[in-house]
Amino acid sequence: MGEIVGAAIVSHHPGLFQEESFRIKMGAGTDSDLIAGFGRLRQRIESMKPDVLVIFDTHWFTTGFHLVDGGEKYEGTYISDEMPWYLYGQNYSYRGAPDLADLCQLVGEERNVAVKAVHEPTLPRHYPTINVVNKVCRGERVMTVGNCQTCKTKHFLEMGAIVGEAIRRSHYRAVLLASGALSHKFNDLDWVQKNPRIYHPDNISDPKNVQSDMEALDLLRQGRHDTILGRFAEYRAIPWEGWGGHYLQMIGALGAESCRAKGEMLSAYENGRGTGNIHVWFDVTGDRKAEAA
Asked: How is the chain split into domains, by residue range?
């Protein structure tokens, strides 16, 4: 029987993949703390000894179906069509988890939910997967889950529950990685930088978004996912990246409103072209121990 042994919200913003010297210059002499945060996240992952990383990718937009990648292996060199002048030459090579993808489709069929496993090694990759794989994967299998743009909040939670059930029916120890930002409103093309350190929250597109993100992070620290879900119409309207599909599917796999896993901040909260970014780890084994007590 498989189990979920860890989970995290993870930033993938492309600015983290510029040259270190440029990042430090833009940070007014100091690198983004999200870079060091990847190392902290990797330590948490290693401590749980997973077999597979399940990545909820906010850029893999699907329509009409929840999709999971079921290829046996993915390899190539990634270049972003969004910012090809610096996000290029990203070599990647990792094993997929086709059996887990098939289980996701099977559970979806049982629950009359539109889920398809895609067994095609040439399926395009997106940088919320590639960036995270290259920073934190060290040989684990990887299965990416799409972000269906015809979903409401309840549909994302439903798909998350399907992923969770598929993992339980598998032989895998899985870590869930919700790859995306919180608030995700970009600065305009001609915006004026408010703080000399580009990563500073003063440079996020709207102070109200910062306040909202801080309130959400406080709830995550407390493990109050029920409160967050009760308010999710507000977060979707901001919007959170990918309508919050990365977080919703992750927390759906962990029990939705019943989940009490407390969030541990593994980085500073930082700006990424106006969006709110942070790494947050959830000790789901601790949550299960609390339930058993």
From this structure: 3-292
Fold classified for 3-292: Protocatechuate 4,5-dioxygenase; Chain B (3.40.830)
Task: Please give the mean pLDDT across all residues of the chain.
Answer: 96
User: pLDDT, tens digit, for every residue of 264-284?
Assistant: 999 999 999 999 999 999 999
3-state secondary structure the chain: CCEEEEEEEECCCHHHHCCHHHHHHHCCCCCCHHHHHHHHHHHHHHHHCCCEEEEEEEEEEECCCEEEECCCEEEEEECCCCCCCCCCCEEEEEECCHHHHHHHHHHHHHCCCCEEEECCCCCCCCHHHHHHHHHHCCCCEEEEEEEECCCCHHHHHHHHHHHHHHHHHCCCEEEEEEECCCECCCCCCCCCCCCCCCCCHHHCCCHHHHHHHHHHHHHHHHCCHHHHHHCHHHHHHCCEHHHHHHHHHHHHHCCHHHCCCCEEECCCCEEECCEEECCEEECHHHHHHHHHC
| pLDDT classification of 285: cutoffs 50, 70, 90 | confident
Predicted pLDDT at 293:
47
Residue 69 and residue 122: Cα distance in Å, rounded?
Answer: 10
- Distance between CA atoms of residues 34 and 266, nearest Å: 8
Query: In the chain, how long is the greatest CA-to-CA distance?
Result: 55
Question: Average pLDDT in the 126-144 region?
Answer: 97
Average pLDDT over residues 254-272: 98
Tens of pLDDT, residue by residue over 210-228, are 999 999 999 999 999 999 9
